[in-house]
Design a protein that fits this description.
Elements: H1 2-18, H2 22-35, H3 40-54, H4 57-70, H5 75-91, H6 104-120, H7 125-139
């Protein structure tokens, strides 16, 4: 029953998000986690929303890392964590490492590692294509080429 209630809260979060009510979406996601902390999808949703909508990078990455620990073989969760590591690194100024975050180069390294894990987990063709493209950009230096100082 708690997983069902948590699923309903996650759906509420997604509806609120679609309506542009990000704070309500985050509150619903947190309620879902309180009901069923073992559901990786909810941690993943919370983390990616904190990062992309609130720029709360440290908290968002923690939530995504928790999702990955709960579901290490889920290619979508591994992709989301990799993409968010890359997103955070891209958003930081060269040389910037706000408290609680590793340097940009380390974020890019972690992004590549998660994308490799995504590919190893056997994603569908669309997710595989997205992961391969982002991984190639990271590995050939199109992103993250600036020196951390």
């Amino acid at each position: 029953m708690t997983e069902e209630a948590a699923g309903a809260e996650l759906q509420r979060a997604m509806r609120s998000h679609a309506e542009g009510q990000i704070d309500a979406a985050l509150a619903a996601a947190r309620r879902a986690i309180a009901l069923a902390p073992e559901l990786a999808e909810t941690h993943s949703y919370l983390g990616s929303t904190l990062i992309t909508r609130k720029r709360r990078f440290v908290e968002g990455l923690r939530a995504l890392e928790q999702a990955s620990e709960l579901a290490p073989d889920d290619p979508f969760i591994r992709y989301t964590l990799g993409w968010c590591y890359e997103y955070v690194a891209h958003e930081l100024s060269p040389g910037a490492a706000p408290r609680g975050l590793p340097p940009r180069r380390e974020l890019y390294r972690r992004a590549a590692s998660e994308l490799h894990a995504c590919l190893a987990a056997g994603p569908g063709p669309d997710l595989r294509d997205d992961a391969e493209k982002l991984l190639e950009r990271i590995e050939v230096g199109e992103v993250g080429a600036e020196e951390d100082e």
